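Dock adenosine-5'-triphosphate; give full complex structure.
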Amino acid sequence: MSIQIPRGTQDILPGQVEKWQLIEKKARELCEKYQYHEIRTPIFEHTELFQRSVGDTTDIVQKEMYTFTDRGDRSITLRPEGTASTVRAYVEKKMFGNATQPVKLYYMGPMFRYERPQAGRFRQFVQFGVEALGSSDPAIDAEVISLAMSLYQELGLKKLKLVINSLGDKESRNAHREALIGHFQPRIGEFCSDCQSRLEKNPMRILDCKQDRNHELMQSAPSIIDYLNDESRSYFEKVQKYLTALDVEFEIDPNLVRGLDYYNHTAFEIMSNAEGFGAITTLCGGGRYNGLVEELGGPETPGIGFAMSIERCLAALEAEKVELPLSESIDCYLVSLGEEAKDYTVTLLHQLRKAGFSSERDYLDRKIKTQFKAADRHQAKFVAVLGDDELKANKINLKNMATGEQTEVDLPSFIETLSGFCK
Ligand code: ATP
Ligand code: MG
């Protein structure tokens, strides 16, 4: 039997890959405008990094990591997300000492999670994410959210919903935590075993449980919003004010939570409410994590970021039937007739490419008619026809495929003429 692709992974072939390239290009261009700079970290890290930063109690660490022991007996994990590595590098490379602050980074690359594959959920997927480290100005929260929204909007998505929440600071979260324990404790027996163990460790994560989401105690659970102290409330209000200034529409969802202690203040998700998008509607998740840098051995440093996958972005584009502006056409196809002319196209093609034209010729000894068909398939804007006779006369025939217009051009000025036509 032939070997097949592993479950939950994909081959992205020409014809599809152009969409990926376009999204990636847009993301990079936006980062340039917003002044986020790329960081590339290893695809594997010491397992402990994720245990500490993503957190021992999360699904990612408990159930989804690709962990193995390497030949040196170290526990290694294929990265399941990008924040951990980014913050590790930030601490290790002492970026807190950089002259330019805050440090604004972005990453793009494959992540690995052992999940049950389904639409929009893969075992290898590509995440694009940003992190802004070193500022606790609510304006940067709004900036980060606006960057994510802008990417989707520039790609042509319309059916987007941004939900935000505040998890407050330590004091607010502790007060909320006590209230949650008081709320769930009397009837915790009715909840799943995960929730039972979350009650003391991390009661906020009960609100995030997919199994018990319809339990009546969920709806009536104490909302973090009611436990925000003055400082946290004012921070949250500023984030909202700045979002409005950036023309970003949002809804507040007090049930949007993140379990880990180092998450605080802003949490957000961008969802697609396009019809037919299916069960998975979250495109992007992010939030503030003012305790993470310290958790990984660095100085106390505020941070905020988001992560989104290209796979879900593509699924949303498909659900909204957005046609991406992909250009598949080439500038020039060289058709040749006769041996000498064919040989000469080797040189000519090289000159075309040096001059910046995407160009192609035949490599299968095809008849002239078939070469023209190939030119069509490449959607060539120009077809240049060179026969042995033309070559002798130092001429070449140039056809503009859009207008049908044909011009006989002196061979030495061919590139120049084509450049003129292309302007
Ligand atoms: P979900 O609730 O869908 O499992 P998550 O909370 O695990 O999402 P995050 O860890 O916040 O997701 O990752 C951020 C983003 O990465 C998600 O919003 C989604 O776009 C994408 N993502 C996460 N897991 C996958 C996956 N297995 N396949 C494709 N994209 C994914
Ligand atoms: Mg998940």
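Observed: The chain has two domains: 17-169+229-319, 332-422.
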